Amino acid sequence: DFLQEGEPTSARCDDLAALKSKGCPVEDIENPRGDKRVLEDKEVTNRKIGAAEKLDPEDITQIQPQKLVLKLRVGEPQTFSLKFKRAEDYPIDLYYLMDLSYSMKDDLENVKSLGTALMLEMEKITSDFRIGFGSFVEKTVMPYISTTPAKLRNPCTGDQNCTSPFSYKNVLSLTSEGNKFNELVGKQHISGNLDSPEGGFDAIMQVAVCGDQIGWRNVTRLLVFSTDAGFHFAGDGKLGGIVLPNDGKCHLENNMYTMSHYYDYPSIAHLVQKLSENNIQTIFAVTEEFQAVYKELKNLIPKSAVGTLSSNSSNVIQLIIDAYNSLSSEVILENTKLPKGVTISYKSFCKNGVNDTQEDGRKCSNISIGDEVRFEINVTANECPKKGQNETIKIKPLGFTEEVEINLQFICECQCQSEGEPNSPACHEGNGTFECGACRCNEGRIGRLCECSTDEVNSEDMDAYCRRENSTEICSNNGECICGQCVCKKRENTNEVYSGKYCECDNFNCDRSNGLICGGNGICKCRVCECFPNFTGSACDCSLDTFPCIASNGQICNGRGTCECGTCNCTDPKFQGPTCEMCQTCLGVCTEHKDCVQCRAFDKGEKKETCSQECMHFNMTRVESRDHLPQPVQPNPLSHCKEKDVDDCWFYFTYSVNANGEAHVHVVETPDCPSGPDIIPIVAGVVAGIVLIGLALLLIWKLLMIIHDRREFAKFEKEKMNAKWDTVSQETF
């Protein structure tokens, strides 16, 4: 009875939270988790050169752990730590593969004494060193060599005594006797060919795959490839009429490669595969002329190095030592082919706190002997294998024989499936296996309870049971008709469910409020909201709670409105606000709160003594000036007030109530007070005025006196002249 009508059996599988929300008891939920189990965890070896303890190569451990089991559930990564430590005094096998074409004549003389000299140098690195020697020239067919009888006997010109051309010869299998190396190499003679590129790839392939003849051990394997020329590769064999691809198998008879005329040269990718499979690290000792070519080749062959060979190979020992140190200072992890749907990622923890991820997470550089590095490896199954069988992958450091074997076990079924009851009576008289609370029908049976036979069911007859009355839609187009019953389809969002006899119901097409189905205040059942208590409406967005509508006087909406869905609808147009208490046109809002604002903002006024008891019903914010007061454009009703305080100063404030019924006052922190007379300027002004007026009067008086004196003087002069004229006249007459 866990499933709703019409829900498919697969709806029993869901994420944990969804199953709990649907009412599935925790004890009935199967939720298997992946884990890891280490089967072999041998500690890495700690020993030094010259130690009394002599260990066989197979007893030396450089990688830990060696074997483990990972149980993988789809989408759940399993992580384990891998430790690598370069062991000191680790055995080394070195095979020297030399080009014996005529241009290498002077090089051969220097290599003849290589065995003992190299032994002495390698003793500084390891006490267990073996060396071998092989040579190559070219395929023994035209146009690579001359096939005339005389040239086959001695391909060199003049009095030069050269050996017959050959493809590859294993002169000396790996040995710890340096003198034997000198002796056998000393007997070798130069040969010759016609073209410049050599057949070295044939030789490398045979050295890699003929492990028994070469004598490779499960230790560090080094292949020194010495030449002063380029190389032939896959496809070049067509020049000699050779079209069969190289088969990558050993073809040594009496230490000679016998199939060079039959198989083409190997490709670079083929060589990379075989060198990697056989854990061989390659050192290319080539002359300066071909450095660029072999450096490009090195980039294609993992764990390989290139050294510059002097014209006569006199520096070959130092070249080998430098290349070995370069190769051994880097560890690169590789894994075998992964099963379909399985991914792997690496994170490295190298020396000096250097960490890396992705492709660089596979390697660590600058590792010295005795250094320990760690890798964190994530393995994830993104899908189950078709047959659910176990798989095995291996991880190993390139160039090393040791590896980590990982057995992958996939969790693709619940435990309850193995506890099913075959032919259960619960499945229509034994027509199925009852497992995990549902029927798994036997072959030929269908239906939720396996009640139908595929041979007897006529789909057209059954479809009639899956259509609603007066409808042509089968299962409302939201499911399929199986055995006369609708099985509703699942949606990508597992929380969204179709249900009902005809899949006509769902839980996601109800009305919404604030972007939520049923406003988050109800449950969507068959496209209709079933609201929680105290909520109503088609989207459960109407609250029946009247508490938000209660005004400060205890009345609902201040007696001036009705409470609808938790919000006041004010019936008196003069009043507004969340509880119909704000009236912008009413006188008294400012007057009512004047004394409380005055006492709280300026600590004065009639309510100064009782301020803390009577005036704490609003929040207050001080602002610098009237320009900073809230403006009427804000959503909450707002009153601007201008009142006089006890000192006849004007103070300004606003009063507003927000949607939660909280009153808030913004008040200008400095009152606007009329300023009193300034005595000093007044007195100074009066004195200055008097002085200035006095000076002005004196100046006017002085000016008038000057004008008067000048007039009197002019009058005097005139009278004087007249008196003089009268005297002269009397004397004349």
Structure description:
By secondary structure, the protein is an alpha+beta fold. The protein is built from 14 helices and 39 strands. Helix 3 packs antiparallel against helix 5 and helix 6 (200-209) packs parallel to helix 8 (268-277). The mean pLDDT is 84. One of its GO terms (cellular component) is lamellipodium.
Features:
733 residues, alpha+beta, Rossmann fold, Laminin, 6-stranded mixed β-sheet, 14 helices, 26% strand, receptor, transmembrane, myogenesis, fibronectin binding
Strand and helix layout:
Blueprint: H1 16-21, E1 35-40, E2 63-64, E3 67-73, E4 78-85, E5 92-99, H2 105-111, H3 114-122, E6 129-136, H4 149-153, E7 168-175, H5 178-186, H6 200-209, H7 211-214, E8 220-227, E9 252-253, E10 256-257, H8 268-277, E11 280-286, H9 291-300, E12 304-308, H10 316-328, E13 331-335, E14 342-349, E15 355-357, E16 363-364, E17 372-381, E18 391-397, E19 404-411, E20 432-435, E21 438-441, E22 445-446, E23 452-453, H11 459-463, E24 479-482, E25 485-488, E26 498-499, E27 505-506, E28 512-513, E29 516-517, E30 522-525, E31 528-531, E32 535-536, E33 542-543, E34 561-564, E35 567-570, H12 589-602, H13 611-614, E36 619-623, E37 638-644, E38 650-657, E39 663-668, H14 679-732
Parallel strand pairs: 3-19, 5-6, 5-8, 8-11, 11-12, 36-39
Antiparallel strand pairs: 1-3, 2-4, 4-17, 6-7, 9-10, 13-16, 13-18, 14-15, 14-17, 18-19, 20-21, 22-23, 24-25, 26-27, 28-29, 30-31, 32-33, 34-35, 37-38, 38-39
Helix pairs in contact: 3-5, 6-8
Domain Integrin beta subunit tail: 590-678
Protein name: Integrin beta
Disulfide bonds: 156-162, 210-250, 384-641, 412-416, 427-439, 436-475, 441-450, 452-466, 481-486, 483-518, 488-503, 505-510, 524-529, 526-557, 531-540, 542-549, 563-568, 565-611, 570-580, 583-586, 590-599, 596-673, 615-649
